[in-house]
Amino acid sequence: MLKPLKFNINNQILILCGPSGSGKGTLVRHLLETHEIFSLSISCTTRQPRIGEEDGKEYYFISLDEFKAKISSNEFAEFEEVYEGKLYGTLKAEIERIHNLGKIPVFDIDYVGGLSLKKLYPQAIDIFLLPPNQAILEQRLRGRGTETEQEIQTRLAKANLEIQHQNEFTYKLVNNEWESTIVELDKILKKYI
Questions:
Q1: Is residue 2 part of a domain?
Q2: For the chain, what is the domain count?
Q3: Is residue 159 part of a domain?
Q4: SS (H, E, C) 100-167
């Protein structure tokens, strides 16, 4: 278990970026299971839930009209259209909710959202997670069995774009072997705790 943080929790966030299939979700689950100080920031999305996903657990699933109303009300810390017709965003109220629990919000987010959050929280712990190579990334995406061939190709093309932005993040982790990825992540976190 990690020690208490040396700085004000109310100003800290942990940003995990990387392409779809890089292992962000698995890494976030590990963090939440092993470190009580962290809590997942649940994003809003206009996409439909996948099998097994629950509203308020993986995402807040809302309509496009609801999403646009929240944009107009300036309720988002960040938002974007990640895939055509599919918007994602982080509510400011979600970050406040987690800070009020005395925890640090963890973001499983793409690079555009991560960079937007870094502007609002320049003290953020920001990590870009990379797959070992393109072939393994494609294998991981296909192994999920949740996307069509066209969606897989879209995600692979987007992954190539995202990887070009890895140097805009303070830390980079190659998720090749699980155990070594966890060791490297803990080394980064120990710099802050």
A1: no
A2: 1
A3: yes
A4: HCCCEEEEEECHHHHHHHHHHCCCCEEEEEECCCHHHHHHHHHHHCCCCHHHHHHHHHHHHHHHCCHH
Would you say the C-alpha torsion 32, 188, 182, 136 has a positive or negative sign?
Answer: positive
Tokens describing residue 13? 């966030």
pLDDT of res. 6: 47
What would the two tokens of residue 22 be? 């890089």
Q: What is the CATH number of the domain that holds 165?
A: 3.40.50.300
Q: Which residue has the higher pLDDT, 51 or 10?
A: 51
- Summarised one tens digit per residue, pLDDT across range 43-72 is 999 999 988 999 999 899 999 999 999 999
By C-alpha distance, which of 18, 24, 16, 20 is closest to 142? 20
Angle CA 71–119–133, to nearest 5? 100
